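Consider the subject:
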Amino acid sequence: MRHLLLLCFSLSLISLSAQQLAPQQLAPLYQHLYEVNQEWLSQATPVEFQAQVRFSSDRERIQRHLQLVESMLRTRPLDQWTAEQQARRCAVLDILQDYWQAARFPLNRISSERIPVFIDPDNTACAVGHLMRETGAVALTEQIRAENNYAYIEDLLCYFGVNEWALTHGFTAEELAWIQPSYLLVYFEAGPLGRGLGINGGQGNASIMDMEELGDYLLFAGDFVQLDTFTATGLAAWDKEQWYTLSGAQPAWVAEMSYDQSTEMLYAYGYFPSLGSEELGPVLARHDGQDWSLVLSTEEVAVADDSLLVRDLICADGRCYLASNIKAYGENRLSALAVWSEAENALVNWSTDYQLTGEVFDLFLLQNELILGGRFTLARGEDTLYQHLAVLNPFEAEVVQDYDNIFSSSAYEVQAVNAVGAFNFGSEREITLVAEAEEGLLAGNTFVGLQLLVEAGQDYQVGGISPSGRTLYGKFPSIWSEDIFTLVNLVGESATPLIYLATGDESINALHSWDGALILAGDFTVLQNVYGNDEYEATHLAKASLLITDLETPADPVTLCTLATDGQQLFIRQLPAEAQELQLDLFDQQGRLVRTMHLYATDSEVSVQVADLPMASYVYRLRWKERVQTGQVVIVR
């Protein structure tokens, strides 16, 4: 009997062991079915379910599980049941078919492990609970909901009513257990921010382009004249209850901003009529708590185009790092990364020893390291060090050269890096990124590499990578469905580096984690949890809770083992540390169990004699603890 410890989490981000198979991971169908319900182990052999599949969501995977169970239950002999029981069984299976086709399943909101959820707080029942309710056993379902809402069927057999219902409707307890799915932790829930009335006006399409914390306020920058019925142009502050404007003149629009805590200055790139933008165009300005003052304009700098363009801006310790089109400041030529120094009241190169040529698109500061992404070359003298991605120590004007170049192990030829992020995992630093290649848009990290996110020719929009360095936001048409993904996690314990979190009708352009919630801004009017059932209406601005499992700690992929044979022995390699006691089942192509072997591994490899087995193609099922891996192996001599 399985015993479950349930924990309620108040944090917005939690982690899980590396034991879950992500729906999007390409794996044999049998492994995906086993992930939803471990009763597949005793109910069916893996032979018929070796097709390599992946699912857009856990909901789709649960649908497939229930579809197959319903279909297979209809083909089973019914001799043990009376005519009345057979009729009821058939009617119940019709209900089950309607249930999985509707695909409205309960949500797991409490446990980082996969668990059953009999009836969730929205009154959505699991498959077994739904079948019982639809056949009149409402009192029984409510009793289970109140007393054992997260229990497996084998634990619910202590209720006389469960056994009685199964017998009355022509089901065995094992069949009910096979029907019952388990559920991933819900990933995403959202609602409107403020009154939910969105944003209006502006010079072009009304939009939020950036967010920044300023004391007890969250600043919203963009191209707008009204937020949620509050009149403000270009910049507004939110304190969880009300909107405010900053003191002094208001900008027309602001695209990038950064607050330097050491100087208590807010820096912003945008259009400031009070600072001469009507003649100068966009400028870089600072706010000292009272009003705005000019920092840079095209009068002081030479730019690649007609007007100043700042693609990204990070300010810390009296210095502002600019990913811009600035080419020179006065008589001084500048690299692709320029630095505004408050102490010198001037624009300077970040280093005199290195040459950075090209364009920097995105910046990410992690402690004393500045990560750069773009289309550039970083060199020292005649030696090219890095292209498109670099890590700097800006305070010492040095290049950090201790990270593995993610491109060297990639099957793709990266042409540019659009967005970068990073986070610390123990003593290690992991870099996340979004990049362009001929095949399309790539995303991934230095741990598990790059994966195709959007195929070439598709209309996508990269909003950026979250301050946590883990979550990509924007607009990303799915490779295998008509969905538009708006949130994608870039670092996972699963073998895939991409975990899809939310879809929407349009892009998320800005994101910030603030006061235990995820604040989202963009062109969207609807957001949807990939792993759940609900659509959330939120026009342009949303407040979301994001609960993530299997995403936080990079670890080994789920499918690690490899099986090979020389005709005499079967070699199982790359076993994880926890796989010490194993069971290996071999099936022929007709699904008959040929042999079961119990193995003990002292390291990452174990072998077993198979010289007496006929030459043939076999399907194997390898088990350790609660994990299953299946595949095919051919014995030839």
